[in-house]
Every structure is written in C-alpha cells, then in structure tokens.
C-alpha cells in the first residue's frame, strides 16, 4: 500500500495577492526563567507575511521555537535569538518577527517597620520586535501605590483648626487636655481622602544591557513614589504607612512628574511613556496623568 504524503495547505498559493502585517498565535502558555525562578507566562508569537502569494505561515515552527524559554534564562539576547529563529524558519515569507510575553513577577516585600513580609504580584509585559535588522524591546510594568490628596488634606486641617477654636476659644490651654483632644474623634473631625493608585510604565530598553532589570525598575519607581501598597502588616506598620501618606501628599500630576524625573535618570533606558491613575475615593471617576520621553 502506497503511503500518502500529508498535504501542506499553507504552502499553496492564495488566489488573492495581499501581504499581511502580522500572522501568528496569541496566548500561548510558556514557562520563562527569570532570576532563578520559573514563571508561567503567556506568549504572542508572529511574523509578517510579506509574500502576498503565500497562503499562510508555518505556525508550528513559531510554537516550537518557544521551547528554548524552558531551559535558558530570559535575557535580551535570548529574545533576539528567538526572533531570528522565527525569520529563519520563514525565509522568503517574512521580513519581520514579533514576540510578546506576559507574566506576573512575584516579589517579597518587607513591612514598613515590623519584621513581617509578604508577596506582591507585578504585571509585566515584554514586547520584542525584529524588523529590517533592527531589534528593540519594550518593557511594561504596573505597580500600585497610595496617594493622598493635597487639597483634601488642607481642607481637613482647616476643619481641625475650626474645631480647636470652638473647643478651646474660652478655655485656658492645658497640656493634658490638649493631648486628649488631639487623640479623640472630637478633635480630629476630618481626615483627607486617599486612594489606591496605579503607575503603568512603558520603557524602551537600550542596546547596552542583556539582563532584564525589571526589579530595579520597580524599586526605583516605588522609592520615588514613597507609598507603595503593603502586604502583611502590624498596627505599627499601618501607622507608619499613615505617616508616609501624610508626609507625601500628591496629585496625579505630582506622581507623574516624580516618575518622569526618576526614569530620565536611568541610563539603560532609551525612551519611556508613563501613565498614572488615581482611583478617586471622592469622585466616581479617576484622575489620570501621562508623560513621555523619546517616545
């Protein structure tokens, strides 16, 4: 009995001559090795279909090329190698290759003052592209922080002053009475509003690095914001967090400017775009600010 050759429909010519910008697969499950840990990731892999006469690409070749992430640490040179492999396996068909990886980077963060610590997940996206022999990678990171409204803080202080005048206008000031008043709800009649906020950083990595400095980027951003959300806390940590918020009042414009200046000082970045979102507790809408440099 004669064995039949398996048909290769994708290799057949199409009836419509039309190149395509991107053809591939999305949401491929793939493990990545980063900082000695294996992280579950989702990959989008694709190439351009520049040969407008070709019916399609060889998607299985893209899928198999991702197996290298199981065995080698995630670096810029590895991303370049995978994209080179995409193009080599589609010689004559494609001139551009694309790869996007999405995963959560888990970092253990200490409490403000106590010995407690807990895990935080930071959504990360790596978008790599090789086109016309030009390779570049964009790193996207999201991080949460707390923001206390300067206007609300000023209004709350004024209300406390008014209450002080009402309660002590005709009374002689006594240290113990004043201390009790400051520690009571009768004295502190108003508090400023704060909200969980998010910074979304998109940075273009320079050509002079190979390792992925994701944690360093997160550390720099959280340091300049000053009020990163906490994990495990005791009352002393909660009090320290309240103090940090009270001494670190910021509008969304303030947060965006702080981040912009911090990112400008990082030598391994060739450009960035950032967006901060303050999920208002006063309003039903959010306050948002954008900034960019060489983007």
UniProtKB/TrEMBL annotation:
<comment type="similarity">
    <text>Belongs to the GTP cyclohydrolase IV family.</text>
</comment>
<protein>
    <recommendedName>
        <fullName>GTP cyclohydrolase FolE2</fullName>
        <ecNumber>3.5.4.16</ecNumber>
    </recommendedName>
</protein>
<dbReference type="InterPro" id="IPR022838">
    <property type="entry name" value="GTP_cyclohydrolase_FolE2"/>
</dbReference>
<comment type="function">
    <text>Converts GTP to 7,8-dihydroneopterin triphosphate.</text>
</comment>
<dbReference type="Pfam" id="PF02649">
    <property type="entry name" value="GCHY-1"/>
</dbReference>
<feature type="site" description="May be catalytically important">
    <location>
        <position position="149"/>
    </location>
</feature>
<dbReference type="InterPro" id="IPR003801">
    <property type="entry name" value="GTP_cyclohydrolase_FolE2/MptA"/>
</dbReference>
<dbReference type="GO" id="GO:0003934">
    <property type="term" value="F:GTP cyclohydrolase I activity"/>
</dbReference>
<keyword id="KW-0378">Hydrolase</keyword>
<comment type="pathway">
    <text>Cofactor biosynthesis; 7,8-dihydroneopterin triphosphate biosynthesis; 7,8-dihydroneopterin triphosphate from GTP: step 1/1.</text>
</comment>
<dbReference type="GO" id="GO:0046654">
    <property type="term" value="P:tetrahydrofolate biosynthetic process"/>
</dbReference>
């Amino acid at each position: 009995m004669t064995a039949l050759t398996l048909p290769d429909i994708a290799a057949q010519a199409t009836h419509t001559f039309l190149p395509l910008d991107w053809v591939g697969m999305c949401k491929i499950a793939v493990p990545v090795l980063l900082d000695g840990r294996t992280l579950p990731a989702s990959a989008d892999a694709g190439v351009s279909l520049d040969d407008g006469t070709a019916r399609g690409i060889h998607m299985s070749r893209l899928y198999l090329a991702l197996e290298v992430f199981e065995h080698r640490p995630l670096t810029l040179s590895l991303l370049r190698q995978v994209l080179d492999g995409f193009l080599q396996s589609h010689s004559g068909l494609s001139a551009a290759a694309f790869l996007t990886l999405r995963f959560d980077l888990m970092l253990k963060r200490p409490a403000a003052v106590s010995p407690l610590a807990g895990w935080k997940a930071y959504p990360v996206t790596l978008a790599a592209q090789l086109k016309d022999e030009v390779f570049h990678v964009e790193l996207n990171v999201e991080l949460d922080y707390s923001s206390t409204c300067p206007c609300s803080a000023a209004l709350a202080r004024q209300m406390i002053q008014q209450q002080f005048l009402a309660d002590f206008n005709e009374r002689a000031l006594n240290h113990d009475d004043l201390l009790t008043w400051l520690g009571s709800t009768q004295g502190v009649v108003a508090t400023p509003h704060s909200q969980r906020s998010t910074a979304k950083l998109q940075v273009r990595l320079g050509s002079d690095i190979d390792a992925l400095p994701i944690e360093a980027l997160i550390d720099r951003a959280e340091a300049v914001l000053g009020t990163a959300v906490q994990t495990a806390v005791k009352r002393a940590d909660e009090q320290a967090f309240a103090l940090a918020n009270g001494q670190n009042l910021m509008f969304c414009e303030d947060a965006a400017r702080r981040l912009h200046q911090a990112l400008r000082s990082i030598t391994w970045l060739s450009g960035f775009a950032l967006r901060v979102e303050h999920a208002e507790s006063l309003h039903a809408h959010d306050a948002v600010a954008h900034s960019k440099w060489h983007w």
